[in-house]
Every structure is written in structure tokens, then in C-alpha cells.
Amino acid sequence: MSDMENTGEIDMTIETEVIDLDGDGIADAVVETTTTLIDVDGDGIADIVQETTITAIDVDGDGEADIIDETTITAVDLDGDGEFSEDEISIEETTAVREDLLDEG
């Protein structure tokens, strides 16, 4: 068997959406989604899929992000059946909020 047989492949796409909610020409939110498909064994079927979405929101219109949310969904086909079952999927989410926007009441 040669070294070139059963080689894996990685495919990555990045999509960015800029949203201007109030029509002032300044972005109020930016959403970036990165999707990675990894075919570990070279059979043409993704063994690992990861999608990360980062959303940055400018609440007060100053052009700086006030809230940043990152969500990563990872699916790993552990049993090699070509499908992702519920126990093969994990979700991680992190949200950062500018401190003065938090209600201390």
C-alpha cells in the first residue's frame, strides 16, 4: 500500500455577514462562521465536522463590539458509521459582555 492511499482531506469555509440595523453605514453586528470538514481516512465522508460562529454586536453605536458570542459545535464520528449520533456532538458557548452593560441590581 502506498503512502498516498487513504489520505485524509480538510475542507474549510469562512462566511462573514455584516449587519447595519439602523442604516447609518456603520456595522451594528458582524457574524463570522467557520466550518471545517475533516475526512480522516480518505473515504470521502467527513469524520469530524466543526462549526464556529462568532457574533460581535455594537450596542451603543460607537463602532466597538460590546457583546461577543462564540459558539462551537463539534461532531466526531467515533464509531465510523458515517453518521453523527447525539453522543458524538458537543457544543461550547462563550459570551463576553462589556462590564458597564451588566446590571449589578
Written account of the structure:
With 105 residues, the protein is mostly beta strands. Helix content is 0%, strand content 49%. It has strands at 9-19, 29-39, 48-57, 67-76, 89-97. β2 and β3 (48-57) form a beta hairpin. The chain is elongated and about 55 Å long. The mean pLDDT is 90.
Total helical segments: 0
The CA-CA distance between the termini, in Å, is 67 Å
Lateral strand order in the biggest sheet: 1-2-3-4-5
The pLDDT mean sits at 90
Principal-axes geometry comes out as: elongated
| Helix proportion | under 10%
Element order, helices and strands?
EEEEE
Radius of gyration: 19 Å
- Our estimate of the beta-strand percent is over 45%
Extended strand count = 5
Largest sheet: 5 strands, antiparallel
Protein structure class: mainly beta
Q: Which spans of ≥5 residues are poorly predicted at pLDDT below 50?
A: none
Notable characteristics:
elongated, 5 strands, single chain, mainly beta, 5-stranded antiparallel sheet, 105 residues
Chain-wise SSE layout:
Elements: E1 9-19, E2 29-39, E3 48-57, E4 67-76, E5 89-97
Antiparallel strand pairs: 1-2, 2-3, 3-4, 4-5
Outline of the structure:
The chain has 105 residues and is an all-beta fold.
